[in-house]
Amino acid sequence: MSLLNDSIDTTSGDTKLNVEYTLATIYHRIGDLSTALELYNNLKYKFKKRENNKGVAAVLHALGVIYQDQGNYEEAFKLYKQSLKIDEELGDKSGIACTLRQLGMIYQDQGNYEEAVKMYNQALKIDEELGDKSGIASTLHQLGVIYQDQGNYEEAVKMYNQTLKINEELGDKSGIAYTLHELGVIYQNQGNYEEAVEKYNLALKIKEELGDKRGTTQTLHGLGNIHFLQGNYEEAAEKYNLALKINEELGDKSETAQILHQIGMTHEYQGNYKEAMKKYNQSLKIAEELGQKKEIAGTLHQLGMIHYRQGNYDEAVRKYNLSLEKFNELGNKSGIAIALLSIGIIDVEKEEYYSALKNYLNSYSIFKQLNSPKKEIVVGYLSKLRDKIGKEEFYVYLRLLKDDF
Q1: Per-residue pLDDT for the chain (405 aa), expressed as one digit of tens each?
Q2: Is residue 85 part of a domain?
Q3: 168 falls within a domain
Q4: Contact criterion met (CB below 8 Å) for 63 and 48
Q5: CA 202, CA 13: separation in Å to the nearest integer?
Q6: CB 227 within 8 A of CB 197
Q7: Residue 293 CB partners (closer than 8 Å, separation 6+)
Q8: CA distances from 183 to 92, 177, 199 (A)
């Protein structure tokens, strides 16, 4: 950092501005957003004064990334559009691809996968024309995240492995870390916790070496999830609170919403429903402000779980259906299957057995398509239902439903 400051003092013109830009990106990377914003805004004025439109576009893009990281999608979108317009006027294909990719990420965060894929494919086409391996890797990674969000793990892993190969060739440690993290998420979702922890720890080590605070919080969050899934709630809460502390310093609303959700789950599973609902509602409020359908869907589902545990079945079903609606909008098959299973469980409590069987079978069918281990959980509920109502009635209902499957 001191060497860069020395360079600023001993250079002039565009060279000096480029050094200042590099310094601003470093402050951004280490999480000092207030300093980064101040430097970028000063640079925007200086680039405009020198009529350096390429510099103006780069700064507008960088400012957009900061606002996006903070969950201010409206401001980020506006800045990206301004940057894109300048890049198009300049014929800067690399800048165009980079901004299209960021616009895709905003659409993705908001659950608009169709528009996100459109942006990513436009970016990928330009990256391939330019032979920009780094850009190709970034775009493939984001396409992998979309497949992952939709529960298509096989296609997601394919994208991530392509990304990992390119980043290893380029020696891009940050790119390697983020792809390792996402592979960890997939292993976690498939119940392979040992492999997930291995990927998370590899990612965490690189992120800490790079001083990447935002990435560090995401992977601490992931490790917390593993502890949670293994029933180690205190260890999970410890990881979540470490992540939350760093994240609040960064001002990243999006990640804060996700961590609050997970802290809510630790309270829920320990029977502290009042504190759980408090955390869920805090998370839901942020997610709704940001328009994050995925987080909204997940939190509505958990609020439904609490109402179910408290015997308030009507309110639970209402929350589950709101959650199901959001998962359908997202095309999130795993989420749809979980919501259907949860509604089926309440159908049994209300002695609506035909509806319960229909929801269970729909849930099983989706999990089977996804090759998810959760299909065995549904099998368990189907067995309980058969035992509860008797084989004869169970198979009568099954025959009535056979045309639907």
Answers
A1: 544 444 444 454 567 787 888 888 888 876 677 888 899 999 998 989 888 999 999 999 999 998 887 768 889 999 999 999 999 999 999 999 999 999 999 888 777 888 999 999 999 999 999 999 999 999 999 999 999 888 889 999 999 999 999 999 999 999 999 999 999 999 998 899 999 999 999 999 999 999 999 899 999 999 999 999 999 999 999 999 999 999 888 877 878 898 999 999 999 999 999 999 999 999 999 988 887 888 899 999 999 999 999 999 999 999 999 999 999 887 788 889 999 999 999 999 999 999 999 999 999 999 888 777 788 999 999 999 999 999 999 998 888 887 665
A2: no
A3: no
A4: no
A5: 42
A6: no
A7: 110, 111, 326, 329, 330
A8: 33, 10, 7
Q: Considering only CA atoms, which of 97, 29, 87 is closest in space to residue 58?
A: 87
The two tokens of residue 355 are 């509806």
Give the structural domain span for 403.
Answer: 332-405
96 Cβ contact list (under 8 Å, min separation 6): 84, 87, 88, 126
Which helix (H) or strand (E) covers residue 45, if one does? helix 33-49
- 């920009």: which residue's tokens? 132
Q: Where are the alpha helices (DSSP H) in 252-373?
A: 253-269, 273-290, 293-309, 313-330, 333-349, 353-369
Residue with tokens 């360079």: 7
Residue 192 Ramachandran class (φ > 0 left, ψ -120 to 50 alpha, else beta): beta
Residue 275 lies in a domain: no
Please tell me the total count of domains within the chain.
1
Rounded CA gap, 359 and 340, in Å?
5
Is residue 47 in a domain?
A: no
d(CA 63, CA 99): 12
- Quickly tell me which residue has 């470490």 as its tokens: 242
Q: Which two tokens stand for residue 245?
A: 């502390």
